[in-house]
Amino acid sequence: MRKIRYTNLFLVLACLTATTAVAQPGQSTKWSHDGQYIYEPSTSSIVSVKLSDGSQSEKIPARLLNQGGYPIRIRDFDFSADEKKLLVYTNAKRVWRYDTRGDYYVLDLSNNNTLKKIGTGLPESSLMFAKLSPDAKQVAYVSGHNLYVEDLATGKRKALTTDGTRRHINGTFDWAYEEEFGCRDGFRWSPDGKSIAYWQIDATKIRDFLMMDNTDSIYSYTIPVEYPKAGESPSACRVGVVDIATAKTTWMQIPGDEQQHYIPRMEWVPGKNELILQQLNRKQNESILFLANALTGKATSFYKENDSAWIDVKSRWDDRDISGWDWLSNGQSFVWVSEKDGWRHLYNVDLKGKEQLITPGNYDVINLLKVDEAHKVAYILASPDNATQQYLYKVSLDGKGTPERISPPSESGMHTYEISPDAQYALHGFSNHYFRNQNEVVKLANHKSGEGEEINKTLMTSRFANKQEFFNVTTEDGVTMTGWMAMPNNFDSTKKYPVVFYVYGEPAGATTLDEYGAGYNHLYNGDMAADGYIYISMDNRGTPQPKGRTWRKSIYRKVGILNARDQAMGAKELFREHRYMDTSRVAVWGWSGGGSMTLNLMFQYPEIYKTGIAIAAVGNQLTYDNIYQERYMGLPQENREDFVKGSPITYAKNLRGNLLYVHGTGDDNVHYQNAEMLLNELIKNNKVFQFMAYPNRTHGISEGEGTRRHLATLYTTYLKEHCAPGAR
Known about the structure:
The chain has 728 residues and is mainly β. The protein folds into 4 domains: 1-152, no CATH class; 160-322, Methanol Dehydrogenase, Chain A; 365-464, no CATH class; 468-722, Alpha/Beta hydrolase fold, catalytic domain (Rossmann fold, 3-Layer(aba) Sandwich).
């Protein structure tokens, strides 16, 4: 079988039921109903790829997607269950980080290939999350913070909500819910297509954070963002079910103060006129599942869980996918994930709250990929023996037996999969630190693609950038961390080399995965190895490695302290073990949480780190959003001292080395105020440093012509000047 490359492979952000068609960028790969084909966009047409042999044919020719003489450029698409209607997403516009606003068209293949634009009369590129009804006769969408339904035969549009504003949001979410829970699409068609369940977010009591735009007009103007800071109450949230015929909403009666809890998950129960919802308390250490009657709104709790630190939601163990529910036994039970026994495990939970452990053992489930109830198994990603890698395993739904590894033993590294609806095929990606990512279609039964021998032969003979080595280091505190080290060319152990540490170190991400790109610095202009640098990264306690609950949650209320100490003690141990590391030339850098880590290391351990480059850093934990910061630190009202103790600004007076601090003034995520607060503290203490502000750039500092080139040049120049390259 020839190799097939997929345009949206492994970008799974949502997995909706087969009865609802949704076209939105970042959705899962489009499988045919029988799972034997994949559909892919090709500019203005759609191609069908047969998985058994890789052959391609034109599913939807470009001539059918032509509006007013102009071809529709497909951003995303989906078919109705019977594949007689096609929903197409185009003209996408960015909302914060993602292009979730645009235009939609419906192509009716059963009615003379009629092409119709949805939402005619509404502002251009204003529709969000359009979805066909289960019978494909209607389409629902959000526009202007209101929810609409449109009859495809008549074109008649009905507003299901009318009170939507920028701060009173129907069918989608505010900034914090989107960023920290992965919640974007905020409504669900009922199985019978007669009603829609949706979230309503009331941000009217949330203060706006005002960002300033000084460059796009002669007079500056402000950009308001409803942004609840740590210590501030979140937006009030409730879930309603609106009747399509009457446009009347029945609100689900979830107990508690709507502004002191979160509802990150909601779906319909199969075959019933009721919803299942997850409620988290403000501190996110208590989770309650409710069943709610869609007609009366009465809600009953049936499953509760507590954690002394925090409870992760589904987006943490399902590739940032918050939607969908993994049902079993025709909706009588479901697969749930919990760390209650010290490891992240799967449980079978019924609607009365009775549970059965599916994955016993001292290992973590990294991700749940597929429940194949027909064969009584689930497919998971796990790596019991190496926290830097991940592999596909098959586990029995009855909790018996041992996990069966599906990924080939010869391919050590990172494996990703997207599994077909019938679990017969999978889109498989593989790489490690020296082998470029390879994508293929495999049969899950034997993990064969017809290319296995070719890939293995390539693996044995092709080693790209093979200068990295993985290591474990144990600190004086008894903490063992994984890490990678990229060594200089022509290394001579009798000489001294400068060391550059790349850091992140917070619960949102790990840096030491055994994947292609490990050991590569995307901001460095040139070749660090050729220039004579040792480049290192380590993952401290608190990072989301599959090392058990204690490893991940030991950082609770200690962000900025415990993780910084692990990094510093790890560096000290490396210097003790490797005399060729020049302790007079030690640099550290990071972005976002890694920028915060860089500042904490420079300020708390100035005797170790001589040069730092911090980008888009949180300098003061009290400035960041409440969902993230309170999840890992508690409530400032109860333990404000922990927020202060973990904030770099507290230690700015200790700066001794060389610091370059970089921030975008248009950063809606980590606000530019962090930079100005930190600058004031450094100035007050007469500290000399270098600062670069990028006007109107957001958290990724990528907008504007020449921006990334300039940032890379600045980074490289500063590093070479203050942490000179080469052996001595």
